[in-house]
Amino acid sequence: MNKMIIPYGRQTILDEDIDAVVNVLKSDYLTQGPCIMEFEDKVAAYHGAKYAVSFANGTAALHAAYYATGISEGDEFITSPISFVATANGGLFLGAKPVFVDIDLETNCIDHEKIENKITEKTKVITPVSLAGYPVDLKSIRAIADRHNCMIIHDAAHAIGSKRDGTFGMEYADMAILSFHPVKHIATGEGGMVLTNSEVLNKRLRLFRTHGITKEMSDMTRFDGAWYYEMQDLGYNYRLSDISAALGISQFNRIDSNIRRRNEIAKQYDDAFEYIEELNAPPSFEYKECENIHSYHLYSLRIKNTTKRKVFFDYLRENGIQAQIHYIPITSQPYYIERFGTRTEDYPNANLYYDTEISIPMFHGMSDLQQEYVIDMIKKYIW
Ligand SMILES: *Cc1c(COP(=O)(O)O)cnc(C)c1O
User: Fold this and answer.
1) Helices 34-46 and 242-252 sit at what angle, rounded to 10 degrees?
2) How far is the CA of 315 from the centre of ligand 1 (A)?
3) Ligand 1 site: residues with CB under 6 angstroms?
4) Predicted local distance difference test score (pLDDT) of residue 286
5) What's the gap in Å between 177 CA and the centre of ligand 1?
6) 373 prior amide bond cis, ω within 30
7) I want to staple 142 with a disulfide (CB 3.0 to 4.6 A). Which of 11, 40, 43, 172 is the partner?
8) What is the 3-state secondary structure (H, E, C) of 90-148?
9) pTM (2 decimals)?
10) Order of strands across the sheet that contains 279-280
């Protein structure tokens, strides 16, 4: 057998996706055409949100979400050290200061019981991350946010379609952000979205997406004629194209089977590794259709003995299994250390997590043969 190369995550593109994109290319609109609105409406409805605003990527969506909260210099926001750097960078773009709260090793998400210790009168926003697709406890975080008058941005880049007690949680989070980077569930090339139930936030997000410009007459200070538009704040060009949205719609039509397949793969991994002494499975979350859904962006194994992780990682890579580590704590990044003086030892759980985590291939298009190969290579490994 030829050596397989299996990535940790990968998009699936079917003929129907290609047709959808080609149809847009033959149409009148390449940017901000009818597909944008259809895509936004579909994703909003699916997650029980009133509004969805698409963006050029998930990072732009985060930037816009932080902007919409009104956070600025002198303010603070709270987030988890275990995430992609964009989660915290989004607040930095606006001059706000990140404050990190260690993770809970039962869920690998922010430990909500430790949030209140870090809240000050400057804290404006809490940004929990549903890591790997495990739905973070937004209900508990909402109670904390309400006591301190904070907003919640749910970083759901990993957690499209996830549910806890029957809900994605738009009744708890002020906004949720999604990413459509190809390693995530839905690929649009680059793409992102913010979901919200607030009409005010929806307007602010849309303003920020298009240069701070409004064309809505009811929002204008004056009206010079049919050509008129108004720039009311400093915004960006953060729009998604209609080409990307068409791909997004087509991909999103298969979201349920996508998530089901990921759960199937996770179950097979769980079963296969149950008796390997040196490994811990990721936190499981009892799958109940419509009630509890872990959307498994990642499958994060934990190596019990930290000194053995690197050799095991290299072994997988040498055998074509493109394992990855998610994530290097944001607090350990040189930029954060230099600018904010973050110290690794202040986040013991995050650091233990970093030393032991290893993401093995998890994507809905993975074949049984590919998964058998991954399982086989891991079972064969001599510790
Ligand atoms: C991927 C990701 C983002 C950013 O998404 P992009 O579309 O790549 O900009 C934000 N937060 C988390 C947790 C992510 O994994």
Assistant:
1) 40
2) 28
3) 57-59, 62, 83-84, 86-87, 129, 155, 157-158, 179, 181, 192
4) 78
5) 9
6) no
7) 172
8) HHHCCCCEEEECCECCCCCCECHHHHHHHCCCCEEEEECECHHHCCCCHHHHHHHHHHC
9) 0.97
10) 279-280, 299-303, 357-360
- From residue 73, give the alpha-carbon distance in Å to each of 59, 79, 93, 341, 367: 19, 17, 10, 18, 49
Q: Which one-letter DSSP state was computed for residue 17? A: H
SS percent in the chain: helix, strand, coil, step 5: 40, 15, 40
Ligand 1 atom closest to residue 158's alpha carbon, by position in its atom list: 15
Task: Please give the number of the atom of ligand 1 that sits closest to the Cα of 59.
Answer: 9
CA distances from 9 to 245, 257, 331, 350 (A): 21, 16, 25, 23
Nearest CA-CA partner of 302 in 312, 314, 317:
312
Residue nearest to atom 3 of ligand 1 (CA): 58
Q: What percent of the chain has pLDDT over 70?
A: 99
DSSP E strand boundaries for 240-383: 279-280, 299-303, 321-322, 357-360
- Express each pLDDT in 59-96 by its tens digit: 999 999 999 999 999 999 999 999 999 999 999 999 99
CB 259 within 8 A of CB 296: yes
Rounded CA-CA distance 171/179 in Å is 20
Q: Give the closest residue (by CA) to ligand 1 atom 5.
A: 58
